Amino acid sequence: RSFSASTASTSSTNPSTNLLNSINHIEAGISPSDIMSARRSIEGEIAEIAAQTATLEDIDGLKEALDNLALGNDFPAQDADWSRIFHQRLAVATHNPVWALVNENIWNLMRSPLMETIRIRTKIYQNRRRRQKQRREVIACIEKRDPAGARKAMEDHIDHVTQFLFDKPVT
After folding, report:
1. Full-prediction pTM beyond 0.90?
2. For residues 160 and 154, what is the distance between their CA atoms, to the nearest angstrom?
3. Cis? peptide before 76, omega within 30° of 0
């Protein structure tokens, strides 16, 4: 499998498979808080590495995803899940396929029916302006080749999403 800036893998569109996966996650003891805590660590690392390895093509792909997010072209279309695509392209920008695979699995968890229900009830899709600013900051740090700044910007982004979804920080 080739990993490039245009890679935008998405999970199964089969609702039965997604529901079964969600039930398996719950049975395995994986909570939404667990997912967000792991995202903070993993995606912070991914952003830091991407700031050192991203090509101009990678950065253009991130900007394209951000532009589509700003247009609201990401919900509920599975083939245009621009938030997921942004984060997957960020992982691809590390040029290490293991990070892309790890990120893809985290986003499979993020798109479980349980997490979707939480997102819909909190109206996160309608409240995206601050998250857009945070993603722009991640891209700016990558363009400046500022690994520490990229990590901090991503951690701030995940912290904001976590606070918004659960009304409390997750550690």
Report:
1. no
2. 10
3. yes
Q: Scanning the structure block, which residue is given the tokens 């009830």?
A: 121
Q: In tens digits, what is the pLDDT along the chain, a chain of 171 residues?
A: 344 544 444 444 555 555 555 555 555 778 889 999 999 999 999 999 999 999 999 999 999 999 988 887 655 555 568 889 999 999 999 999 999 999 999 998 988 888 878 877 776 665 666 778 889 999 999 999 999 999 999 999 999 888 888 876 655
Residue 151 has which token pair? 């990590």
